[in-house]
Amino acid sequence: MSSSPYIERLQVRWGDMDTFGHVNNAKYFTYCESARMGYFLAVRMSDHFEGGRFGPALAAAQLNFRQQVRWPSGIEVETRVTEIGRTSFKMEYVLIRTEDRQRVADGTGVIVWVDYSVGKPVPLPDGLRESIRVFEGMDSA
After folding, report:
1. pLDDT digits over 8-41, tens only?
2. Could you name the CATH architecture of 6-128?
């Protein structure tokens, strides 16, 4: 996934480890969350919140754990949007250990655009769709 338009660089913290001496599996989801929030900033998602009424909600998250990571280590989370639907989009993550460039995890997330006042999905704003397409280098549809 070297063509990812967004890469979040993180340092593993001592507190990320579990009693087995490697990064706890829940921390990988936190690493993806950091990358997701950085991606949202990069595509200026907050321009479409309309006073906080609308915004993203993580509807699904899945990760495959490929290798253990120990402190001290660096992680890069390569992030991209691979599908844009009517009310949602799919993100893919690849987590790379910086020391040896090994893939340590990969997965996906589905983000739904929600009207928070009623708690229901609504269509993605056209401007947000276009911003993601431009950032990703996708053809407009």
Report:
1. 999 999 999 999 999 999 999 999 999 999 999 9
2. Roll (3.10)
Q: Please say whether the beta carbons of 26 and 16 come within 8 A.
A: no
The length of the chain in residues reads 141
Beta carbons within 8 Å of 35's beta carbon, 6+ residues apart: 6, 7, 8, 77, 79, 93
Which DSSP state fits 125? Answer: P
Contacts of 68 (CB under 8 A, 6+ apart): 22, 23, 104
The alpha-helical segments, DSSP class H, found in the chain are 25-42, 126-136
Q: Are 10 and 70 in contact (CB under 8 A)?
A: no
- Residue 131 CA to residue 125 CA, distance in Å, equals 10
